[in-house]
Structure formats: C-alpha cells, structure tokens
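Repro:
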Amino acid sequence: GTRRIRALAIAPELEAELTAGIERSGAGIQIALAPDRIETIARGARDALPKLLDLGYLPVVVASPAVRLGLVRILESHRIEASVVGFNEIDRSIDLESVGLISCDQPTAAERRA
C-alpha cells in the first residue's frame, strides 16, 4: 500500500508572513513579528490540531523549509505539541494528505460558540 502522512498545512498568506518575519543570523533565528501576532498564529495551530487528533492522526504540521524552525519555536513557546516537518524532509514515495489548514483568520473558540 501507499505510505501516507496526514498533516496540517499552513495557509499561503500565513506562510508568506512567517517567511517575511523570520530573520536568520549567526546566532540562529529571530521571529520579527509582534507578540500578539505570534499569539494569533499559536491559536490558529491550537484550533486546527484537534481535527487531526479527532481523526486519530498524529499532530504533524508540514511547512516550507524557510518557516519550519520559526514555527517550531512558536509552537514550543506556547506548549503546543506537534511535529513540524519541512516539505523537503518527506520522501517522494510518501503520499502527503492535508487534512486541515493553520490560518490566522480563524474565529476563536468563543466566537464560534456565539
């Protein structure tokens, strides 16, 4: 059978924002985004992950290599447990299936209940 990874993807506009906001230097990476924006990104991940878990899949997020480390930093700092994998790290023989999207324009849990 085909080997398959089911994962969350990152909305293109968020991927672009992260790419622009991650600065590399000799000391590693800096995330040059406003704290409330980082909070919103973390909330987007926290809101999207249950969909994967509810389906019985592992918490995996697939990102471009350019934003992978920055996203790892954001998730770790908010104690969100998920593996962030770069597209380049997935063997071509493996089928990648996106079962959800991390985006920042998702309503909060409170807004959804309203």
